[in-house]
UniProtKB/TrEMBL annotation:
<feature type="region of interest" description="Disordered">
    <location>
        <begin position="281"/>
        <end position="300"/>
    </location>
</feature>
<dbReference type="InterPro" id="IPR023591">
    <property type="entry name" value="Ribosomal_uS2_flav_dom_sf"/>
</dbReference>
<dbReference type="GO" id="GO:0006412">
    <property type="term" value="P:translation"/>
</dbReference>
<dbReference type="InterPro" id="IPR005706">
    <property type="entry name" value="Ribosomal_uS2_bac/mit/plastid"/>
</dbReference>
<protein>
    <recommendedName>
        <fullName>Ribosomal protein S2</fullName>
    </recommendedName>
</protein>
<dbReference type="InterPro" id="IPR018130">
    <property type="entry name" value="Ribosomal_uS2_CS"/>
</dbReference>
<keyword id="KW-0687">Ribonucleoprotein</keyword>
<dbReference type="InterPro" id="IPR001865">
    <property type="entry name" value="Ribosomal_uS2"/>
</dbReference>
<comment type="similarity">
    <text>Belongs to the universal ribosomal protein uS2 family.</text>
</comment>
<dbReference type="GO" id="GO:0005763">
    <property type="term" value="C:mitochondrial small ribosomal subunit"/>
</dbReference>
<keyword id="KW-0689">Ribosomal protein</keyword>
<dbReference type="GO" id="GO:0003735">
    <property type="term" value="F:structural constituent of ribosome"/>
</dbReference>
<dbReference type="Pfam" id="PF00318">
    <property type="entry name" value="Ribosomal_S2"/>
</dbReference>
Length: 300
């Protein structure tokens, strides 16, 4: 008897459960579950007002404590790719940048050149560590030379014959405009010593074939070019590693010559110095032209 009384009630409950849930209740339930855990959904005007007040308070705290934080970001700090695209000036170069580029890593102790000992800091794990306290002054001295040559309308050649150095020498030569040149593939033997056969007699008479300064990023692979520069009395600047005799170039820069980052950093710093020299030459030429026009106007 009791079961017969409950059966109609169960049927009614089953019919109610098969009814469709309203769409608005489904969307509200989805919105409530989609919110992050611990945050209430913004459903009423009071919720939005509370949210705006909390956001304003957070912004006020950020503005108040921002003066106590760091102002260094990705844009104003040094990045590895900056040595190629945005090189620093010689006066702004630091030992940290040289170390980050790997300039302090030399070759094995067993192949260290005896003449390189003054530039060696020590040996660690069988590898010669280059003393960057010698590298930085040598690089700044070379930068002064490049600036002086460019300011006196001299031509400068960047030589980097390894495949990974091609972009570095091209960008470095481009910063010197018409005074910059580069050799990225191969130095042709006799370029300086047999210049008449290479360029022609008329070209040698009309143009400046012999450069005023040559910068070698990998001097050990360009010994023939260094000999030609010595025979033609052309000053040379080069990156010398621990297995290289520093005396092969006139202005040695002790650093890791197998590191692409190091070569890009050094070439960029020297090219920036050359760009400063080019700007100085243009300024002097403009002053000279102004003075000349003033004198002509005064005589007339």
């Amino acid at each position: 008897m009791s079961s017969s009384i409950l059966r109609p009630g169960l049927k009614a409950a089953a019919r109610c459960s098969r009814r469709r849930t309203p769409a608005w209740s489904c969307s509200r339930g989805y919105a409530a579950t989609a919110t992050p855990q611990g945050e209430m959904p913004l459903e009423t005007a009071e919720d939005w007002t509370k949210f705006q007040v909390e956001r304003a308070e957070f912004k006020t705290l950020v503005e108040h404590f921002s003066q106590f934080g760091s102002n260094q970001t990705r844009d104003n700090t040094w990045q590895p790719h900056h040595s190629l695209h945005r090189p620093v000036e010689p006066t702004q170069l630091t030992l940290s940048a040289l170390m980050a580029a790997g300039a302090h890593l030399g070759h094995s102790k067993s192949i260290m050149n005896p003449n390189f000992i003054p530039y060696a800091y020590g040996v660690r794990a069988g590898v010669t560590i280059i003393d960057l306290d010698h590298t930085l002054p040598a690089l700044r001295r070379a930068a002064k030379l490049v600036r002086s040559v460019a300011a006196n309308d001299g031509s400068i050649v960047f030589v980097g014959t390894r495949p990974d150095l091609g972009q570095a020498v091209r960008k470095a030569a481009g910063r010197l405009e018409s005074q910059g040149f580069h050799v990225a593939d191969r130095w042709l033997p006799g370029t300086l010593t047999n210049k008449v056969q290479m360029f022609g007699a008329q070209a040698v008479l009309d143009q400046r074939v012999v450069p005023d300064l040559v910068i070698f990023l990998n001097p050990l692979q360009n010994m023939a070019a260094i000999r030609e520069c010595a025979m033609e009395h052309v000053p040379t600047v080069g990156i010398v590693d621990s297995n290289v005799d520093p005396r092969i170039v006139m202005y040695p820069i002790p650093a890791n010559d197998e590191s692409t980052r190091t070569a890009e950093l050094i070439a960029g710093v020297l090219s920036v110095a050359g760009r400063e020299g080019v700007a100085l030459r243009k300024e002097q030429d403009a002053k000279r032209q102004t003075r000349k026009r003033y004198q002509e106007h005064a005589h007339s």
